[in-house]
Amino acid sequence: MADERTSKAKRYARGQRRLALAGIALFTAYAAAWIATGLSRRVGDALAARLPFPLDAVAMAVLFGGGWILLDLPLALYGGFVLPQRFGLSTQTVKGWALDQAKGWGIGAGMGLPLLAGLYVAFRRWPETWWLPVGAFWILFTVLLAQWTPVLLAPLFYRFRPLEDPDLVARLEGMARRAGVGIRGVFVIDMSRRTRAANAGLMGIGPTRRIVLGDTLLQGYTPEEIEAILAHELAHHRHRDLPLGLALGSAVNLLGFLLGARWLPPLVRALGFPRLDHPGTLPALALAAMAFGLATGIPLRAWSRWREWEADRAAIRWCSNPGALASALRKLGEQNLAEPDLEAWVEVLFHTHPALGKRIRAAEARAAAMAALAENGSPSAPPSDLCRSIRSE
Questions:
Q1: CA distance 264 to 258
Q2: How far apart are CA 358 and CA 371, in angstroms?
Q3: Reading across the β-sheet that carries 160-162, which strands appear in turn?
């Protein structure tokens, strides 16, 4: 049975990776076709002649983005609905999946089109130094988005309700309090309406931060396993991984804007555009942004994997229960069809977390070492107050 589950997880992961690579290749071909055929220049000229600035750029985004949505729809349907259904993960209907897609497109347009208009305004107003105001605004936007996602965006997709298990609520709120992480309560979201996968974590930052458990996690996990999962998540917040990640991502984006200010003007002129704020430059900007994201994603994912290892170590140190962490990770892997062991290149290119099998084996090795110490009569390191006081309450 274990071999069968592993084979199934590998096939599912392989299918998702192929779809991701196909999406990159298809978008590259799509954007390149707009540029190579002269379509982006002709459409941009027509829009600039008929619409005031920057509405011409917004209209270009609607046309270019709308075409991409239609072209990508078969891949999105297969990866988001057909493949999870085939492997027994999805509980959605086609109608439910389509509604989620429509919500995502609406949110993307509602936020993305004003941001794009602002970008083109910055191109025109500060042709040499646009990267500074754009970078500053982008940092502010990402911080606000992280803070208000639990309040404004997540409820569009999931129903939140307070956890009704008072003992588990007390355990989890006590953990957060002793970890020095302020929260606004413990909530359950209805993941089961979409998937059989399970998840848990902390959502939001500052005054909107809350503990969130998928309803699929409450079925089949012991309180100790949920405690171990939350200890891992609390470690991220106690280590300030979220603000550090935002700071690192902001620095990378600022570098991208700086490089764009230097290299994009000669690039678009070489492609036949008179200036950077011409609406027809959008496909070229999209290609440049994708290339930069692919290149910088590798070191950013490496940083993320390091922080995940540190969170695992902290969860074990705080609770002195590596067996619970190992069993929770194993259950999550089986339930979510996570590939347990990865080839090195797959982990480097695609994953923000270390391979699940490595994390499980590390926790099991620590559990075995603690058991050996106990058999020999040697005291092992006691749990920190974070979990010890929970068990004594």
A1: 10
A2: 20
A3: 160-162, 186-189, 210-214, 200-203
Residue 375's CB: how many other CB atoms inside 10 A? 8
Percent of the chain with pLDDT over 70: 95
- Asked if 54 and 119 count as a contact pair (C-beta separation under 8 A), the reply is no
C-alpha to C-alpha distance for 390 and 121, rounded to whole angstroms? 55
- Tens digits of residue pLDDT in 212-240: 999 999 988 999 999 999 999 999 999 99
Tokens for 248, please give them.
């690192």
Beta carbons of 161 and 187 less than 8 angstroms apart: yes
Q: What is the pLDDT of residues 180-195, one digit of tens each?
A: 899 999 999 999 999 9
Tell me how many degrees the CA angle 36-56-47 measures, rounded to the nearest 5: 60
pLDDT for residue 378: 63
Give residue 1's pLDDT: 55
Q: pTM score, two decimals?
A: 0.91
Angstrom distance (rounded) from CA 87 to CA 343: 22
Check whether the bond before 54 is cis (ω within 30° of 0).
Answer: yes
Please tell me the distance from the alpha carbon of residue 279 to that of residue 61, in angstroms, as a whole number.
8
